[in-house]
Structure formats: C-alpha cells, structure tokens
Design a protein that fits this description.
By secondary structure, the protein is mostly helical. It has a domain of 71 residues. The protein is built from five helices and two strands; from the N terminus they run E-E-H-H-H-H-H. The chain has a two-stranded antiparallel sheet. Helix 3 packs across helix 4. The longest helix has 68 residues. The termini are far apart.
Length: 169
C-alpha cells in the first residue's frame, strides 16, 4: 500500500533518457471489480504456493478456493485449463531460475575451492622451502644467500624468502 499511484520508469535510473514510461498501480479495493478479484486471486495463489510449494496441488487448491469464493468465476470456468498451464509455466520458470542459481553457486564454490587449494599448495611449498633453507643454514653453516642458492630458489624470489626468514628466524 505504500507504493505511489503512478510509477515512472525514469525514477529507476539516473542519467538522460529519451523515453519515460508511466505505469498506473492497480490495487485491490475490496469492491469486487475485476482488478480486486485479480489481486485476491494472486494473494490466494501466493498462500497456496507457500502451503504446498510449486506443485499441482497448489494450483488446484488456488483454482478451487477462487471458484468457491466467487473470484474470477466466469473467467476461470471459461479458461481454467489455460490458467493452470500458465501457473505451471510460472512455477517451472521459478524452478529453472533456482536450478540456475544453484549451479552458479556451485561453480563459484568449486572456483573458490580450486583457488584455496592453489593458495594452500603455494603456502605449503613456501613452508617446505623455508624448512630446507633453515636446515641448510643450521646443519651446513651456510649463509642465507648460500642456502637460497643451494635450495634452488630463483633469484627473483630470494628477496621474498629473505624477508620471511627475517620475520620468523
């Protein structure tokens, strides 16, 4: 009820635009007109979907309750099968979006795991190299520079290892 009577597309974006679309907001007024009946139909459909999930039972119960309450009766009598098919299509579209979102999340998780494994592997390699360097320095009496060369640390990575050795001797 806190939505204005009229919505403007231009209110949804910033910047210049050549076209504005004005939409009148339809509300259920409780007077039983077609708009009110459609709003009540949607409310019942939402409640049945919450109760039964996206199932044929939710659709059947929505149609049954609407007819029992006199909501859109002439329309539903003439087009009940079509309405049910549209509701199935909407349920299926929502299900497809859920499946899509699940797969996107799964792919992101797998990417995160790969990234984490790569970081863990790199950390493990660094830790292993530091152990070797420290062992060479301790057991063979080599200087940091000599231990780095003996351990086969590339020249470009030596400042990094020297810094790590100074941080945690």
């Amino acid at each position: 009820m806190d939505v204005p009577e009229v919505l403007h597309l231009s209110d949804l974006y910033e910047g210049e635009g050549g076209v504005d679309l004005e939409v009148k907001v339809l509300r259920g007024t409780g007077n039983g007109d077609i708009v009110d009946q459609y709003v009540r139909f949607c409310q019942i459909a939402d409640a049945k979907r919450e109760q039964y999930g996206r199932t044929s039972q939710a659709i059947e119960e929505t149609l049954r309750e609407c007819k029992a309450k006199g909501i859109l009766v002439p329309f539903l009598k003439a087009r009940e099968k079509e309405v049910a098919e549209i509701m199935v299509t909407l349920f299926n579209q929502q299900k497809v979006m859920e499946i899509h979102d699940y797969h996107v999340a799964l792919a992101a998780r797998e990417d995160g795991l790969k990234e984490g494994r790569a970081e863990g592997h790199a950390e493990g390699m660094t830790d292993g190299a530091l152990k070797v360097i420290r062992s060479l320095m301790k057991n063979m009496g080599l200087s940091v520079e000599q231990a780095l060369v003996t351990a086969g640390i590339p020249e470009s990575e030596r400042p990094h290892f020297e810094a790590l050795l100074q941080q945690n001797p």
